[in-house]
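Troubleshooting entry. The earlier prediction with EPZ gave an output that would not parse, so I re-checked the input for stray whitespace and re-submitted. Clean input:
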Amino acid sequence: METFLIHGGRPLSGEVAVSGAKNAALKALAATLLTDKEVELRNIPDIADVRIMCDVIRTLGMTVTERGKVLRIRRTHEGKKEVPLSLGARLRTSSMVLGPLLARYGEAVIPNPGGCRIGARPIDRHILGLTKMGAAVRYDPHDGYFHAEASRLHGVRYRFDKNTHTGTETLLLAAVLAEGETVLENAAAEVEIDDLIAFLNHMGAKIRRTKTREIVIHGVPSLNGATHSIMSDRNEEVTFALAACVTGGDIVVRNSCARHLDVFTKLLGECGGKVERVGPETTRYAAGTGYRPSHITTAPYPGFMTDWQAPWAVLMTQAHGVSTIHETVFESRFSYVAELKKLGADISFFDPPVRDPERFYNFNWADRIQGYHQGIRISGPTRLHNGILEIQDLRAGATVVLAALAAEGESMVRGVEQIDRGYEHIEIRLRKLGAGITRRKEDV
Ligand code: EPZ
């Protein structure tokens, strides 16, 4: 196990460039299965999840060659139509190959997807859409795999019961080669989906977002190769912005995608942080002299993203007053709270009153975990002290690093492999901003 040793209390300053978006790159890799021609993907982040996804598509017949942040991908051999459990169970997006494999070969076998332990994260909405397109999908509880087949996928008008980011992408990937027209209603609107749409259209797909939550796809016989540059990572930018604010720092972010962060930047400004768009892709984030509390409810795009609430909680430990966070997308996304309390944070759980939880929450209400809560109250300001911290999931991992950077004294953060899944060389980039952080191998 690897750990970070962090000397907190140092204000961050300087410049940092945001990497390519994990949640766009992984889907673009799945999309390469849809063509036999060569594809070039640029601005690929150097993160563990991308390396695992490259191994997944290699088992499915693709050759992937890497040169820096550029991947060249081409079908070169008859691959399997099955994702091995050793790979699939480590990656939520292993389910993203379902659509392309069914569209190209009419068969797919994938393990029940893994990923962050932030909830059950089933793919029932993905499967229902695929069956409406003509696929037969059965889950075998004995082997833990989904077995899918389809003679020919056909277009469908399909309305998602609730928002699903990767569910929308799964049906996009299935529909681009399907027979006829597919209309996705109540489709997710996260901008990473539009990055995937742009890439698929560069390959010759015919996809239009006709309304905010409606996407129309006209099936085509085949796709060409293309070159596509992955958009910047919104979650990474939010993490660095909050790192500056909680350490009393002042940083400039290059490759900024602040234009997609309106809800975040507006709230950060209202709470006392400084945000300055200094160029089309350059944004300055700086600490304020005192922070005001906030009351946020997470929501699918364009709302306050669920991925941002954990690092936001660190800022709210510094706010003068009581803040609340109501998590509505996942049923178990407060694993970081126990870690922040180790550093002295004053946080308590509560259950926000909700009239119809099944309709209100984005997760399936039946998946909730008895005894878990969807709300936290944070009282501040609190001077955080050092501690020994554990990481449970990717965004919680970034959160405890931010808290340790803000705390006085030396802290240890264990299980940093989780952070490596989604943040490129995070300690090197934080060190360049003046943070006292080093990576150690921990003797187990
Ligand atoms: C994607 O997860 C992102 N991951 C998440 O980022 C992000 O938090 C989330 O979208 C919301 O924007 C990737 O893109 C790889 P959902 P996804 O399908 O697609 C439930 C990160 O840190 N649901 O919109 O899994 C589901 O369990 C990650 O980078 C069903 O019940 O999210 C969740 O509670 C974390 N059945 C809610 O709906 C389904 O068929 C939203 O899920 C699908 C989803």
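This one parsed fine. Residues 22-23, 26, 92-93, 116, 119-126, 163-167, 190, 235, 306-307, 329-330, 362-364, 394-395, 422 surround EPZ (CB under 6 Å).
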